[in-house]
Amino acid sequence: MNRKDLVANYRVWRRRWLYPLISVVVALSLSLGTPIVGRALDLRPLLLQGVQVLQLSNISDRQEVELGGQMNQELRGQVRISRNEALTNYVERIGRRLAANSDRPNLPYTFQVVEDDAVNAFATLGGFVYINTGTIKTADNEAELASVMAHEIGHIGGRHLVRQMRQRALASGVASAAGLDRSTAVNIGVELALNRPRSRQDEYDADARGLRTLTRSGYAPSAMVSFMQKLLKQGGSVPTFLSTHPGTSDRITSLRREINSQSSGGRDGLDNAAYRARIRSIL
Ligand code: ZN
Questions:
Q1: Prediction pTM value
Q2: 28: Cα separation from own chain's centroid
Q3: Measured in angstroms, how far is the CA atom of residue 130 from the centroid of ligand 1?
């Protein structure tokens, strides 16, 4: 190949791959934030200042659901999602009841069971909630399981992960053009969802939101306390739920105070035998 051909080839390559690639990266970056930037404007200085990352804090519900869906794809390669249809349907039914009474009832929630004996649960963005089989087995009744789910829905209500993603992106210096594509956001989100350094403030907030949701749904609010107490008493190896959710005793005290101040609470979900029958397939 002579030099002229090389140059011609390069031009073709550049037209075919490089330009579309740049536009894809720019489009993805922009889609994370509101399109306030005009076309004629040079994006580079704005991108370098982290404007796109800062806009993670006010992404739309639709964008949040999209990101949550992409994180779900990624997570499905890292955790084992249960194919137990009866169990998943049961958890979904509880979830829908809670979601309708949550702070963000209009999100399209997705509830999935993770085959893992660790007592844990987590939520990502846009209504994606994951419950370990270990949590389902440890709960004595539906109200206790619902209390954990309501707590996770509370994290979604408080948009806690979105804020943590933004902080992580800024702290790790990916507030540059290269680090602002969707896949980086997805990776940060998945990493935080699985190994989230939970802030005390977020846990109290998720508890308070969760307790309100639980009560509004008609479940016995005392179940949130009884489930936490059970984990505290279990001893032995510290359950994941406790190690990642700090200050359990303090949280119990605070929940008790809140419950006592409520004039009336629901009483649903306290039938232990009915619950055991529902989850028989994994006992
Ligand atoms: Zn939590």
A1: 0.77
A2: 21
A3: 12
